[in-house]
Structure formats: C-alpha cells, structure tokens
C-alpha cells in the first residue's frame, strides 16, 4: 500500500484494480531495464541519423557531369550502380542507384565512392569508411527490399581468419585488405589469412584469391578459410587479377607491370581443369582495362589493346586471344558470365550508360542505370 501511495493511488482502491496497476508498473520497469542492456541494443541495427547518412544522392546522379563508376548486376532486373559528380563544391560527391525488379532507389551522397556487390540474387551498395580503415568512421549499406529502400550502419567486428556461406568478400572497401560483409546482420570485418586481393567464390562454394608480395600466388579454400591450397603463378610480378567461371573449372590469371605508358600485360595464363594445369595465353592484348571474364565452356572475354588506343573486346579460345565481334562501343569495364555480360560504356570520355548482352556477346543492349 505504501508503493500505491507513492504512485499517487489511494488505499481505498479495489484489490483487483490494485493488482492490475502493480502488474502494469512492473511490466514497464522490466521493459525499460531490458532496453537499457547492451544485449538488447546489440540485436538491433544502429539507427542512421541524417547527418551520418548525408544529403540525398539524387543531385549527384542527375548532375550534368555525372558518371558511372561501378556496376553490379545480380540479374538483368536487379542491379546496383555507383555514380560520381566531380563538378560541384571543393571535392567529388558520390551516390548509388539500386534497381529491384523495376523499382529504383537512390542512396544518400557520400564523400568516397560506393562499392557495389552481389549477394545471392540481390545487388547492394556499400559506402566505405572515409579513412580507408575499419577503425575510423562509419560504413553504410544500402539495399532495396520488397519493404522499400534500407540504409543501415554497418557494425565493425574483430578481424577473423574464416567466413561463412552468404557473406560477401570484397577488396574494394578497405584498400589492400579483404573485407567480409554480412548483409543479414549488417556487419563488416577484415579477413586475415592467405589472400589479399581478387576474391571470387564460384558456384561450388570454393573461394579463390590472389596473394604474394613481389609475386603472385593463387590460393583457395573450400571450407571458409579453415584450410587453404596454394600455387605459384608468377614469381616476379604482383599486380594483376583473377577470373573464375561459375562452375570453377575455367580460371584466367593476369599479372601486369607498370610502365610510363600505363599497365602492360606481363603474363596471362588460362586453366580449364580447376587450376591443376595452366597454359600461357598466346597473343594477349598489350594492356588490360580490367580482369577477364571466365566462362564454363573453357573460354573467356576481356577488354584490352595497345596503351593509349581505343580498348577492344577479345575472346580467349584454344589458348589464344582474338578480337571479338559484336561490340557496341567503348567499354570501361566488363563483368558477368556467359548468361549476362555487362559493363559501363564511355562515349566521348564520359561514362553515363551501361551495355549488356544475354547471348555471350553477340548482341548488346544499352540502358542508363539511374
């Protein structure tokens, strides 16, 4: 009864009503205590304030000088595109657009370029930390679901040597390191271990990476980093890239050297038996814009040419690289597989559109990803 009087309730209140009031007060106290515990807070994605998220990115995407910096297509109707605007203010501004089955949304403006990634049949965009390290400012994840656009602050976790199925590996979020993004619990961490660049997971669950200082080794794991296999590819050159077909049978390794006129191809090799045997690629282009794209049929495609010349599309077949027909214009990048090839196009030195092919590069379709 003393508790009732302190709450401002008279002693004459009916017993049943007294019990109800006490139960309600107890429930409120327990709920407040539960919400104040670290465990309860940790189970919820951190709220994103407008100051952290930045202004709307629509102005970046619609700018007269806007350009496509990155493109990821999970399917023809599910993609994410990173955009830049370097004509306003003291520095560049960046944004991202996501399309999900015909519905589009634009991420907020960010001071550094967005990284576009694929997770299953979904494309997402990640805004990296400003300092280039996970010890500094926030990282954001932007995705589009059936419930609408979602902007989430990624929580940093301690580095690990392993990763799980469904997590996304990227060497673009933190320079020189491989980051592990978990879209389900909105976390990101550094992967410590054998690989340092070009992480690719094929359809069998095996993940491949490149490693080495002053040299290039290929490493792979079938159990999320618990055990690794390794093989030397180039004992003299470190820079380069790796392409792996969806079935994991076709691999293309490229190492390059930096000269006064740009990056020159030092060594290119292809394997059609899951990396057991490698064959040097004959007549590769003198320079490459990006890594090749490997197909399940033992072939590959890539963009390259002589340094300073207009880039061309080449196909690697029977151990040799040859010019490929059906190319619509100047491509800045080439990604995908034999079912969906795509890349940003550069008309008049400005990337504003993307071309895609669903027939292995025979014909191409253009569209603007904004």
From TrEMBL:
TM helices/strands, residue ranges: 12-35
**Alphabetized UniProt keyword annotations:** Membrane, Transmembrane, Transmembrane helix
Gene3D superfamilies cross-referenced by the UniProt entry = YVTN repeat-like/Quinoprotein amine dehydrogenase (2.130.10.10)
Q: Matching SUPFAM superfamilies, A to Z?
A: Sialidases
Question: What InterPro entries does the record tag this protein with?
Answer: Sialidase_sf, WD40/YVTN_repeat-like_dom_sf
- What is the protein name for this chain? Exo-alpha-sialidase
Organism of origin: Kribbella aluminosa
Q: What is the lineage of its organism?
A: Bacteria, Bacillati, Actinomycetota, Actinomycetes, Propionibacteriales
């Amino acid at each position: 009864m003393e508790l009732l009087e302190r709450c401002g309730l008279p002693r004459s209140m009916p017993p049943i009503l007294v019990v109800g009031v006490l139960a309600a007060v107890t429930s409120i106290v327990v709920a407040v205590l539960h919400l104040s515990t670290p465990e309860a807070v940790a189970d919820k994605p951190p709220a994103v304030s407008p100051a952290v998220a930045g202004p709307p990115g629509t102005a970046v995407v619609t700018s007269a000088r806007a350009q496509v910096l990155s493109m990821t297509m999970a399917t023809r109707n599910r993609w994410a595109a990173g955009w830049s605007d370097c004509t306003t203010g003291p520095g560049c501004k960046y944004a991202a657009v996501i399309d999900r089955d015909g519905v589009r949304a634009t991420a907020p403006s960010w001071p550094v370029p967005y990284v576009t990634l694929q997770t299953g049949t979904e494309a997402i965009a990640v805004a990296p930390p400003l300092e280039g390290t996970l010890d500094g400012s926030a990282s954001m994840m932007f995705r589009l679901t059936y419930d609408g656009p979602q902007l989430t602050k990624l929580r940093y976790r301690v580095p690990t040597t392993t990763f799980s199925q469904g997590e996304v590996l990227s060497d673009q979020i933190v320079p020189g390191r491989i980051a592990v993004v978990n879209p389900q619990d909105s976390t990101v961490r550094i992967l410590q271990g054998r690989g340092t660049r070009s992480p690719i997971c094929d359809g069998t669950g095996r993940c491949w990476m490149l490693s080495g200082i002053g040299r290039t080794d290929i490493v792979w794991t079938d159990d999320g980093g618990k055990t690794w296999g390794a093989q030397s590819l180039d004992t003299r050159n470190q820079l380069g890239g790796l392409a792996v077909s969806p079935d994991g049978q076709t691999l293309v390794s490229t190492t390059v050297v930096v000269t006064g006129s740009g990056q020159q191809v030092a060594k290119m090799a292809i394997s059609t038996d899951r990396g057991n045997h490698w064959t040097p690629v004959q007549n590769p282009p003198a320079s490459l814009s990006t890594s090749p794209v490997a197909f399940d049929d033992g072939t590959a495609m890539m963009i390259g040419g002589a340094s300073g010349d207009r880039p061309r599309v080449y196909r690697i077949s029977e151990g040799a690289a040859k010019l490929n027909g059906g190319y619509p214009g100047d491509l800045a990048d080439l990604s995908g597989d034999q079912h969906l090839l795509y890349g940003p196009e550069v008309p008049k030195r400005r990337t504003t559109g993307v071309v895609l092919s669903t027939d292995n590069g025979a014909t191409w379709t253009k569209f603007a990803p904004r």
